[in-house]
Design brief:
The structure is a single chain. The chain is an all-beta fold and about 120 residues long. About 0% of the residues lie in helices and about 50% in strands. It is built from no helices and eleven strands. The strands form two sheets. Strands 2, 4, 5, 6, 9, 10 and 11 form a seven-stranded mixed beta sheet that branches. The protein has a four-stranded antiparallel beta sheet with strand order 1-3-8-7, with no helix packed on it. The radius of gyration is 13 Å and the shape is globular.
Amino acid sequence: QVQLAESGGGLVQAGGSLKLSCVASGGALSSYTMGWFRQAPGKEREFVAAAARFGGIYADSVKGRFTISRDNIKNTLYLQMNSLKPEDTAVYHCAADKLLRSLPSRGEREYDYWGQGTQVTVSS
């Protein structure tokens, strides 16, 4: 069973950047479809980005600002976040779908393993 651990969150001013990392242990990250989700206070968890065999997809709210990538040697998933906005404030979770799909899913029910999350706070 793969275990996921996020890091890289913090406090940043609007317009700034952060890079989140998600280290996988107990399994090869290259064998999974990987995703990032976030949950803001008082809101439901929402899809941010995901990467599968043939590329990635993004939520409309982050398209053009966020980039998902993976380093299979380091067994690490990344989320580069640029031009951050106060509405990006949330706990960010990485997730693994045990199937390496051709295209990733936006639905959190497709993901089998979850990290504890890392807090991102964007001040205005």
